[in-house]
Structure formats: C-alpha cells, structure tokens
C-alpha cells in the first residue's frame, strides 16, 4: 500500500490557486471595466453570467417556439386558414411535422407549404384532396435513374 499523506502534505497549494484564478479570469476576459482584471469582481460577474446563461437557454426554446408559431400563422393566413385549424387538420391527416419544420417549409418551400394548406383546407371542408397535376411538376420516373450518394 502506498501512503500518500506525506506527498499531499508537502504539495504546494499556491499553484492550484493560481490556475483557479486564471480559469475565472479567462471567462471574464470580454467583460468591461475592472471585472476582467480584478479577481474579486470577476468571480461575481462570472457567476452572474453563468446564471443568466442557464436562464437564457430556457428562454431561447420559448422564443424559438413563438417565432415558429408566428411564421406558420402568417403563412397559413396567406392560404386562408387560421393557425389552430391548420395544425389540427394536419394532425387529423396524420401529417406529423413539428413547428420548426413547418416554419422552414413556409419560408424555403412555399409550394410544399401550399400543398399542406390545401390538404388541411380539404379536410376542413370535407372535400376530396385535389388531383395531382403531372404536367406542371416532375414525376417520380425522372428520378428513377438518379443515385443519391
């Protein structure tokens, strides 16, 4: 068995303190004023920044969800549907796309979003789905020879 108590007793604690101070000051380098130089002020500022960072991670999720809902609402109103009716009819049609994907479709794929709105509108009015127009869009046969790597 190895007795480490003597080595631990003789070990200097100064180096540990130095590196602990440097770690705190590293996190405080971008702060303004004496908070980025004075350890006593930097410790408080870094702890406060860490607390705000933790709270901001929760707020970010909430803010993004609100943004997605606003985007979907605006896009669905362009097609004559309100947001709750649009989402509930998509769920009834077994279209399981989350709000993030729907918001991205509304921005970057407006034709796809228009077809989803038409699907939701048909279910709302109890109409059969609109016929697929093969002339205006490329059919699946044209992609038969393409190999996606």
TrEMBL record:
<dbReference type="GO" id="GO:0006412">
    <property type="term" value="P:translation"/>
</dbReference>
<keyword id="KW-0687">Ribonucleoprotein</keyword>
<dbReference type="InterPro" id="IPR005813">
    <property type="entry name" value="Ribosomal_bL20"/>
</dbReference>
<dbReference type="GO" id="GO:1990904">
    <property type="term" value="C:ribonucleoprotein complex"/>
</dbReference>
<feature type="region of interest" description="Disordered">
    <location>
        <begin position="129"/>
        <end position="149"/>
    </location>
</feature>
<comment type="similarity">
    <text>Belongs to the bacterial ribosomal protein bL20 family.</text>
</comment>
<keyword id="KW-0689">Ribosomal protein</keyword>
<protein>
    <recommendedName>
        <fullName>Large ribosomal subunit protein bL20m</fullName>
    </recommendedName>
</protein>
<dbReference type="Pfam" id="PF00453">
    <property type="entry name" value="Ribosomal_L20"/>
</dbReference>
<dbReference type="GO" id="GO:0005840">
    <property type="term" value="C:ribosome"/>
</dbReference>
<dbReference type="InterPro" id="IPR035566">
    <property type="entry name" value="Ribosomal_protein_bL20_C"/>
</dbReference>
<feature type="compositionally biased region" description="Basic and acidic residues">
    <location>
        <begin position="131"/>
        <end position="140"/>
    </location>
</feature>
<dbReference type="GO" id="GO:0003735">
    <property type="term" value="F:structural constituent of ribosome"/>
</dbReference>
<dbReference type="GO" id="GO:0019843">
    <property type="term" value="F:rRNA binding"/>
</dbReference>
